[in-house]
What we know:
Elements: E1 5-9, H1 13-25, E2 29-33, H2 36-45, E3 50-54, H3 62-70, E4 77-82, H4 86-94, E5 99-103, H5 107-129, E6 134-137, E7 140-143, E8 148-151, E9 154-156, H6 160-171, E10 176-178, H7 179-187, H8 195-209, E11 219-222, E12 226-229
Parallel strand pairs: 1-2, 1-3, 3-4, 4-5
Antiparallel strand pairs: 6-7, 7-8, 8-9, 10-12, 11-12
This protein binds calcium ion (CA).
Amino acid sequence: MNKPQILIVEDDKAIANLIATTLETQDYNYHRVKTGSAAVLDALTYRPDVILLDLGLPDMDGVEIIRKIRSWSNMPIIVVSARSEDNDKVTALDAGADDYLTKPFSVDELLARLRVALRRVRSDSEKNNHESSIYENGNLKIDYAAGCVYRDGTEIHLTPLEYKLLCLLARNTGKVLTHNYILGKIWGSSDNYDTPSLRVFMATLRKKIETDPGHPEYIQTHVGVGYRMIRKNN
Ligand code: CA
């Protein structure tokens, strides 16, 4: 595989340096830009595999950058935000960002998030090569055509809503989905369901797919944000 190309969008020199040094240790290629307009241009010309996007930029709102890029590309975007920008982080995820890092973050955390994003790039391109109707992740298998779910080869019975929820998470493996996004996709614009009811459905789904629902291996909780399906190493 070619060296991954990462676009660093960060106006804080010290943080940009830290990220750049970290990427060098992994032999990743990168470009650095300091403004939103340069980020949008570089996303088009440099065609990065992953964008690391600081939300607080001098010239443009980070969320606007995500919307612009999402209008033509599905490339993974990891938002980097300060703790004071917590609401912006959720808005950024709703606008189509994949994941987030909160400053200050550790080098290990940064690399772990990048690996998840790069895995998504790879599985997306595989999907395009041969459109699969089977989803496999660890001991979990979904047969989309038949509408069946298996754990360790044994079929498990899900309600239609649980199945819909699982498919939504599976089709977005590696990506953090916000409560709002999930509610919109599963229940449409209905006001009858909210984050607490989503939590209830998630708990029953986990009981069926997780070996230990108290320590979920597949569906990760992001407190105050949403959920993510983890790609397990098969
Ligand atoms: Ca900044």
